[in-house]
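Much of the work behind modern protein science is quiet bookkeeping, done one molecule at a time. The protein below has been through that process, and both of its lines are reproduced in full.


***
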Amino acid sequence: MTREAMTGGAAPEALPLCAAVLCAGAAAWLISGRNRDLRRAGLLFAAGGSAGPAGADPRRRLTETVAWLRERWRTAYGGRMGWELLCLPAGGVLALVGVSVLPLLAGAAAVPVVGRWRRGREHDRERERRAAAVIELCGAVAGELRAGRQPVEALLATPPGHIGERWGLVSAAARFGGDVPEALRRAARSPGAEGLIGVAACWQVAVDEGAGLAAGLDRVAGALRAERDQRQKLRSQLAGPRATAVVLALLPAIGLLMGTALGADPLRVLLHTPAGLGCLLAGCLLEWAGYAWTARVIRAAAGREGHRAHGA
């Protein structure tokens, strides 16, 4: 009895139940999305006397619960879902092939992990776009200044690009006579827009001492461009170790495919025997340890190269 509970012997009965739960959750999600406006109207006019007591209708209670979960999801993850949801059907296929509920649970557990990794990649790309926008801004403002415009006019005439929402503070300060350097420093708090601190310093020096703002912006743009080139060079140097880590992470899956092709049925051994479950647990732990160790080595190498670049 214990062996069946451990190895997923009740998987044929558990799989239809899991599928039913997933279908019910998806249906409730769609119903709550379709009736969202009606639900808001009902909540607004519930005090009119036509609505029944709160919580009396199970369907209404379920709809409000699903709406609350969606709001929590939107607050935590921005309401964005991507291809990390493919972990669910992949886990379902493996669960059907291996006749075990463990792959389905693993696929559900992998959704937030993959989503966090995907959002991290999106933040990195947004940071790179914002840094490139700061470099373009410096060059454009310097060009406008050399064309004869005043600093405020040159700043307002330059499109901000992908700098971010905080650029509105800079535009408002320049348009209404506010503190432009302070607004630039506040806009520099966005990830990737740190170069605006140099722009603020050049603006402050130009206002206080009458120095050439265009020349200072050119120097800031050159420094930011050199720093970007250094990051790209470092990224190309670390591409080899990252590719090696990905290949090593995929080796267990390749081994399972080869075992299946040879007729060894590795999924049955891993999911339905105590020795297989032990090997599966040990393999997952070693996989995680290897990935963490490789990531630490890459971060250490990136840190050394970054300190070397700043020291140079």
Q: What stands out?
A: Residues 133 and 162 are 6 Å apart (CA to CA). DSSP finds 14 helices and no strands in the chain.
